[in-house]
Known about the structure:
Radius of gyration: 14 Å
Helix content: 25-40%
Distance between the termini: 31 Å
Largest sheet: 5 strands, antiparallel
Amino acid sequence: MAVLTDPISDFLTRFKNAARAGNEEFTAPYSRIKADIARILQEEGYIWNYEVVTGDHTRIKVKPKFVDGRAVLTDLKRVSRPGRRHYVGANELPRVMSGLGISILSTPKGVMSGGNARKHNVGGELLATVW
């Protein structure tokens, strides 16, 4: 098994690949931040649901959302990486695709979407943008 240096990027890549391939679900190794990202994706309508599967290895199972046979997810981009962190202030939160996409941030108040961060007037590490 390969050693992952960026597990969040691995999770997002699995999500993008599953959506593009038309897979009804995919699994990834579990971590709390991945579950938080999946929660945000579900709240924003990019996935149907997710669940944590326990066993020998705890995994997260995600079901991407499809409408009329097409994935709701168009694309996503990992912004902050382990070697190059990207932080934004509360007044610097980016608008993704002129408001058609979302940004995902790790803030002192937890992982949240860019819209929620604007409401709470909080900044943090910009993890990814999704559209």
